[in-house]
User: What shape does this take?
Amino acid sequence: MKVREFLLERYFAKYEFTTEHMLSASDCETLSVVELLQGADGEVMDLWNGLRLSYTESRGHPLLLREIAERESMPPENVLVMNPEEGVFLTLNALLDASDHVIVLSPCYQSLYEIPKSIGCEVTRWYLKKEGGEWRLDLRFLEESIRENTRLLVVNFPHNPTGFTPSREQMDEIAELSARHGFFVFSDEMYRGLELSTATLPSASSYIRRSASLGGLSKACGLPGLRIGWVSSHDSWLLNRIATLKDYTSICASAPSEILAIAALRRYDELTGRCRGIVRGNLELARTFFKERDGLFEWYEPSGGSTAFPRLLGEPARGFCDRAVAEHGLLILPDSVFDVDWNHFRIGLGRSSFPEALSVLGRMLSDRAQGRWTGA
Assistant: This one.
C-alpha cells in the first residue's frame, strides 16, 4: 500500500517541537499524570499501583471498554480500543475495496480521504460552504453525489479545521440518506465533547444503523499523549475485521495508557468542561482580534471543537505562515496542508498559551504595517 506524504503531519514534524509559539494546536491543554490521578478513585489507584508492564487484551481492558461503552451508549462488545489514527487506518481498510466510491466531508484530516485513495477508491470531496461569515453543510450536494457504488460517507463533527457542528436534524438527514441508499457512515468524533453553541450530539454509531464512530481522549480531554482512542459500531462483522487487522499493527494498547484512560473517562465531564472553558476564553480573544482587523482577515465563527479557520486577505496564506514561523517563531497552519487553496489558516483555541501566541501575531502584523517585516 502506497500513500502520499501527510502534509499536515510533515509540517508539524518540521516545526512543532522547535518553534517557540504555537497558534495552531488542535489539542487542548494537557494534564500531568499526577494531576490526572489526583482525582482517581480507589479502584483506579489499585490498578495503577499494581500495574505490570505486560501485554494487554487486544480489544481493550474490560473496565476501559465498559467506561467507553457507557459514554457512547453502546454495549462493551461493540467497542474496540486502539490509537486514534490506527482507528482511521483499520476501519477504512476493513470497509473499502478498489471499486468503491467514497464521499468525504472536506476540508479534513488527510488520512480520511488519502487512505481510500490508496486503496483505489474514487473519492468525492464534500466541501463545507461559506455563507455570511459562517460554515454551512450542503446536504443537497451530498445527495446529488451518491452513486450506485457509493460505499461510504466520512464525516467529522465537530469539524476540524473549521469548528462547524451540525444540528441533530442535519445528522438525521444523513442517517436517512444512509438508510435509503445503503451506504455506510464513518463518523470521526475526536472533537466530540467540545461543542460550544449546541448540545453534544449522540455518537453516530448509537443511532445510525450502518455506521462506525471514532472517539478518543486527545482533544476533548486534553490527553493526546495517552494515544487512546476507540471505534464503536453495531456491526459485529466490521469490528471483528478491524480486530483481525489490528494484529498487523499495534496488536494491543499500552498498559499504562489504558489505566490512565479509565481514570480520565471517570472524570470525563470534569475534563471536557475544563477544556471547553479554555476554548471559550480563547475564542472570545480570537473573535475580537480578527474582527478588529477585518481589513486583513475574514472571521468564521466555530460552533464546536478546538480549532477555527479564518481567511487571510491580501496575500497568500502559505507564504504568510512560512514567514511567521521563520521570522517570529510562530507556528500557524496554512490551508494547503488540508489540500485546499482558499487562503485560510487554522488556529487552535485549546491551549493556555494561546493569548501569548496571539499577541505575537499582533506584533508581527504591527511590524508589517510599519515596514519592519521582510515579507511586507
